[in-house]
Design brief:
It is a single chain. The chain has two helices and eight strands; from the N terminus they run αββββαββββ. The protein has 144 residues and is α+β, with helices and mostly antiparallel strands. The strands form two sheets. Strands 1-2-6-7-8-5 form a six-stranded antiparallel beta sheet. The chain has a two-stranded antiparallel ribbon with strand order 3-4.
Length: 144
């Protein structure tokens, strides 16, 4: 069983690690990841605003981990659908927090939602809805 990193081991490998995404916090029904601002991730050099790609990756990871947090374990799954509605750009220099929750786990499909913000959850950057699918078999039912 592989769970998200803890506060003492907050680095991810792979694509998320390259982007600098880190574990931020979690509760029984939610998980938060953080994407620290980096000049390498800027999409508009004049304003210093982060490109949308890293924020999309952050929210894909956060919603995926929300499923694993819900089932209390690891299940290889693929993003079936990911919808992000952007409201505004992230503030230059600010860390973006991706908070996600798993709404339901069915036999082979899970449903999630989340929000990206840069310090004020009441002033979101984006909302996300994501669906994941287990390619073979089914999700474990430890805590659905």
């Amino acid at each position: 069983m592989t769970m998200p990193p803890t506060a003492t081991d907050e680095r991810f490998g792979g694509h998320g690690g390259r982007l600098g995404i880190r574990f931020h916090a979690r509760g029984r029904d939610w998980i938060e990841l953080a994407l620290p601002w980096s000049a390498e991730l800027v999409g508009d050099e004049e304003t210093g605003v982060l490109a949308s790609g890293p924020i999309i990756a952050l929210m894909d990871m956060a919603t995926s981990l929300a499923v694993w947090n819900r089932i209390r374990g690891f299940a290889p799954h693929a993003t079936l659908d990911l919808r992000i509605d952007y409201f505004r750009p992230a503030r230059s220099g600010a860390t973006v927090i991706g908070r996600a929750e798993c709404l339901r786990v069915a036999r082979s499909v899970s449903f999630t939602r989340g929000i990206a913000h840069d310090g004020d959850i009441d002033d979101p950057i984006a909302h996300v809805a994501a669906t994941f699918m287990v390619p073979t078999g089914s999700y474990t039912r430890a805590a659905s």
